[in-house]
Here is the input.
Amino acid sequence: MSVNFFETACKESSRNEKQFGICDDQNGTKAYTDSSNNTKWIAKITNDNEIDISFTAIDNCIIVYKEGTKEKESSCDGMLTFAESLYLVELKKQGTQGWISDAKGQLENTIKLISKNHNLSTFRYKKAFACNKKHPSFTVIDTAERKSFFERTNGFRIDVQAEIKIK
Here is the structure.
């Protein structure tokens, strides 16, 4: 069964503010963008050039089941699309160890699901962001792990930070 990740009711209207956030109330509802209450933001979007950006909620909105079961596939919270760019975003609010590997697993699985249903070669810039409100600053991932992620995901670069700069 084909799933369309790009033309869906889960896609918000595009926005072009210089700054907004992505929120996840973590109560079983989908992630969403917000420009008024930065205390709810898990990821901060910095968009200095005021580019039109679309956010599409994935987790708790675009439901994909594991083949032959009623079990939901693990997916990241959402994606940002603009120009020739596709940014996947996983939002966390936990201080526990292991959150990065959990986030990477969700991002990788989402990339696999999207790739199975779409040709992603039209996107020149592909990134995957693991964002954690409790660990907002940039986390260094060693070069070998970055390279491995890039190869496993057909060209997605991984970043672990709570600020996403749109260029």
